[in-house]
Amino acid sequence: MSDRPVLSVERLSVSFGRHQAVKSLSFNIGAGETLALVGESGSGKSATALSVLRLIEREGGRITDGAIRLGSDDPVDLTTLPEQALQKLRGNRISMIFQEPMTSLNPVMRIDEQLCEVLRRHQRLNRVDALKAAERALEQVRIPEPARRLRQYPHELSGGLRQRVMIAIALACRPDVLIADEPTTALDVTTQAEVLALLKSLQAELGMAVLFITHDMGVVAEIADRVAVLRHGVMEETASVEALFAAPRSEYARQLMAATPKLGQATPRPPVESNEVVLSVRGLARSFSQAGGFLKPKTVAHAVKDVSFEIRAGETLGLVGESGCGKSTLSRSLMRLIEPDGGEVILAGRNITALDQTALRAERSKVQMVFQDPFASLNPRLNVRDLITEPAYLHSGLNAAAREALAADLLDKVGLDRDAARRFPHQFSGGQRQRLCIARALSVSPKVILADEAVSALDVSTADRVTRLMCEIQESLGIAFLFISHDIAVVERMSHRIAVMYRGEIVEIGPTEQVLRAPAHPYTQRLLSAVPRPDPKARRRAPVPEAQIADLDNNAAGIGMLVSGGQLDLPGAAAGV
Amino acid sequence: MVDITAVPAQPGMLRTFWASTNLIQKIAAIVGVSLIVLAAFAPLIAPFDPLDQSLISRLRPPLGFERYKDGFYLGTDELGRDVLSRSLYGLRLTLGLALAGASIGLLLGGTLGLLAGLKRGFTEDIIMAAVDIQIAIPFTLIALLILAIFGSSLEVMVVVLGIAGWEQYARIVRGEVRKITQMPFIEAARASGGSPRYIAIRHVLPNIVSPLVVQFTLALSNIVILESTLSFLGLGVQPPTATLGSMVGYGRDYMPTAPWMVTVPAVMIILLTFSVQITGDWLRDRADVRLRER
Q: Spelled out in words, what is the top-level CATH class assigned to the domain B27-45+71-288?
């Protein structure tokens, strides 16, 4: 680490119209150093990152004050540089990796074209040399068979591979500064662990300064040297990662740490006593087939295979698994929003798999759902009163006065003001909307609530409050929850029992304590080891073996799951149910 | 965040609406209302009978020009008919035809589009095939065929203008419906126990109002033009009855010598489409609760 910083930001202020997104922010990053910028949504993290690249103007923002200096000797001030000079810097001396690997690659360009574009523009390489350099770049980010990958299109790669390609593009010109904006948020934990490990080893190789933006304290502990905590555009605290985690000085940092779920630190809720089984699933299966084409066989993907479990009254069953493992298909099949191919769903003693649509509609009042995206799961054109009382209205035909009274009652239950009833969804924040979704589910006094990634889209402190609310409601009303999440730490807080799903099957199920402390199945063990720990001292010195990166996406269509070359031997229907 | 209290039903409502508009929208509203009033009361306002000819006072210019003939404020046409009176009657007929035509298109296309978007499968294929056929064949040809078979009466004309735009509505509605049925809140409504019909009416329809309003305003302008095309070809409303379109069409030959014959109805068409478009945009924004005051 040299003594002069590579990137130095001084009293940076950014505003969008009249709203000030960043207020007088200063920090330095030296070569080979990683500064993590932490904060919840709206804290100005991304505005800062975009300002460094001077892309903020495109988003409608304006740098109102301050300086951004790049380079340790003879630094240039990015805030005053003309556009042409900036274009020479971007992708060359400063690069950026974005959150969404699905949308930040151009879908109609092959990987080689996208990589060579950068190389040819900044390094003036000819076609042949650029192609060679591109292959080396893919090798550098540990992508197996780089020559073959270069000829592929983004949709042919898995999420993890795509993010590696993004990193390869960003690092192609050996930048001085790399900005990573939530680069692992859209990835599964096991993939996230690999990408983080890769970033670290590349940083050691190339000695670049990294500005790492994230909301996840676990990831911070994993990767950062120093941390800057942001709130409403103001820096609340900056400290070395060890110091911050050992003793946060600012009140906000303390709150943030407290709200972050830590795997293994929650007291698991003991199994419930009740013997009343409210939801029983036997041998549930659902597959999706993709029609074959000319000379192309029909492919069948088994999203859910022979799944069986029971949930008792007042109990929370946590369902964990990575994306594509069939969690959502399972929850939708339980309500027959997707028709299952086989098996039975017995809801409060009645088999609903054989019912016709009309009879099924009546049964749906016993099971309700809370969806992942609180912004999309409420009809924007209806007011809150109509939204949250809709299930009750559909099942028992309430009149207007009764709906008004019910709405007030439900809003009380989820801790919102009664006058919210007249407002529209866009007037609420994400957490408040998720409360509205819970209120809607409660309106018919269901036996079971299926919460599908219900807090995944929320900030940690908001998610914390919403999960608490769910627990309180469960204790007062005795409702059973199926709590689906990819975030094991959150599931640990919520659940009495946990089921682990892998490739459409439940590979392990049991009391929370037992599954998390003494995982029996190798997949559970791997999943648990990949979860980032919000504790810099527990940093994994030896990351996931590289052999496991081998050919991420050479497995069954649709169920993209990381399989290491024969290391994991997964039995067909494992673990006691 | 401002609490949205229930809007009081009567006199205040008009004032609230008025307050929520900007200058251009105010102008458009005034122009629109004036045009409607002019059209509705054309028989009372028009100084002459629109069909009265007077060959002595042919091609007289409007007030303020040389050879102006007293009383004919906006001049006369090649048969000595009062341009102002003809324009007012023409406006009346054009406005009526456009409204009727656009509404028929909306009802027909909207319903079929909704069906196609919700039902899928065979129903969708049939409806969309019809849409494709109509797009592929120039509509003027279809209109000519219908008018040739059924003769050109006012009723047939309304039907023709209605059919003219339905495929646009159907395409838009189907696309919007398909997009919206993918949204989680539709799944949430199903999970709440809503029947397909309930979901279509309560959840899908309110969310496709905006593009429909926009299409309606576009269709109005298009129909005015289509009507004038047909009139020009001699298949529209038959002379001597005046419509704005036919006045522009026939007046074209006199452009160098008597430009007012074209100018007056053309300005009315411009004012009409202008106020319809602006009002349409305003309505679209009004219909979207998300764009109202937060």
A: mainly alpha
